[in-house]
């Protein structure tokens, strides 16, 4: 006899955290923010993130 109350459950189906529209919105926000940044290191990070987000949309 199996006790279902203590049996490990299978993980549920993964759901997307962000939609394609979210990625586009985030890219536009980064573009706007990048225009105001003077720190070259931060700008490089923003550009890299912008590029990575583009790969998903």
What report would you give on this structure?
The chain has 57 residues and is an all-alpha fold. The chain has helices at residues 20-34, 40-54. The chain contains 2 helices and no strands. α1 (20-34) runs antiparallel to α2.
Please give a handful of descriptors for the protein shown.
57 residues; mainly alpha; 2 helices; elongated
How far apart lie the N and C ends?
Answer: 50 Å
- Counted beta strands: 0
What fraction of the residues are assigned to beta strands by DSSP? Answer: under 5%
Task: Give, in order, the helices and strands.
Answer: HH
Shape summary = elongated
Structural class: mainly alpha
Helix share, percent: 40-55%
Summarize this entry quickly.
With 57 residues, the chain is mostly helical. The chain has helices at residues 20-34, 40-54. α1 (20-34) runs antiparallel to α2 (40-54).
């Amino acid at each position: 006899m199996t006790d279902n109350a203590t049996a490990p459950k299978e993980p549920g189906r993964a759901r997307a955290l962000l939609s394609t529209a979210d990625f586009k919105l985030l890219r536009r926000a980064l573009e706007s923010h990048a225009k105001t940044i003077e720190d070259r290191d931060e700008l490089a990070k923003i550009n890299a993130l912008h590029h990575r987000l583009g790969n998903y949309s």
